[in-house]
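=== Per-residue structure ===
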Amino acid sequence: MTKLINHVQQVFLAHKAKHNVMIPFGDDFTFQNARQSFEHVETIIELCNKYNTLNLKFIMSTPQTYIDALKKENIMWPVKKDDFYPYSVIRNNYWSGFFTSRPAFKKQVKVGSALLHAQSKVFARQVIHQKTTAGEVSSIIQANGQLLDQMGVVQHHDAVTGTAKQYVSNDYSFNLYKAEENSKSIYKKYL
């Protein structure tokens, strides 16, 4: 708790806003149990508000509420006129090629997305059909869910952008392929 309060104080010193700063919690894999994570953040906020002596008020917010609060401060912000590419966090280690790398995988994601949308309509129609068996409904839901999950994974900022390590990109592609094939095998039965 003390570390967080000190961190917020340091952010304030380096920040242009006078009354509001955003402190994001987590990273790519932090909130796999959202309820537990939010309960922990609420506890941290409660303790920080109870024990800080720096006249700070911690709240859980949304990006929109934060932006609205910044607007009320009426600050003149600098305008960035160049871009961030190529992006680097380590010397000689650039994250570039967002729009040009791994075009075959980008196409696979696009095709998978089209398949997901098309099959979702066909599957929904089939599930509500009176003659569909419980076993068929189960296989439809499983196939649709598997492809839906994989499409969610490949939307990660290191997946579809093409910036993941090669073995990770191979894994994304393989898992999406398996989900697409499983889905197609069920989907073809109802066309």
